[in-house]
Specification:
single chain, alpha+beta, two-stranded parallel sheet, 13% strand
Length: 106
């Protein structure tokens, strides 16, 4: 069976930037144990530049989440946003996404 690879995403730097942000939050966001008996969960926002049907990083995402959960003593909650920048590459769309993410997660 011939494997068909998806075309290279023009927004690959956005995907890498999103993943780097998530890694930064995970590493430097303080996975230290809180003094409370039931500390609030650590919240991690994963941003992907493509839509959720492409599945470019599906394997990476699964392992990434698993590693973060296993490396944390606290409960971890993931929030995932698919920005779909390939279909909507305009600056206006990026500005609207920034507003939406700020309203949703701030």
């Amino acid at each position: 069976m011939k494997t068909v690879l998806p075309p290279r995403c023009r927004c690959a730097p956005w995907a890498r930037f999103g993943l780097l942000c998530a890694i930064f939050v995970a590493l430097f966001g303080g996975f230290s144990r809180a003094q409370d008996s039931d500390p609030p969960p650590k919240k991690i926002l994963l941003l992907y530049s493509f839509d959720n049907e492409e599945g470019i990083y599906t394997g990476f995402d699964r392992v990434f989440r698993s590693e973060l959960r296993s490396g944390s003593r606290d409960r971890v909650e993931f929030y995932t946003e698919y920005l779909d920048l390939v279909r909507f590459p305009t600056p206006a769309h990026a500005a609207n996404l920034a507003k939406l993410l700020k309203l949703k997660f701030a």
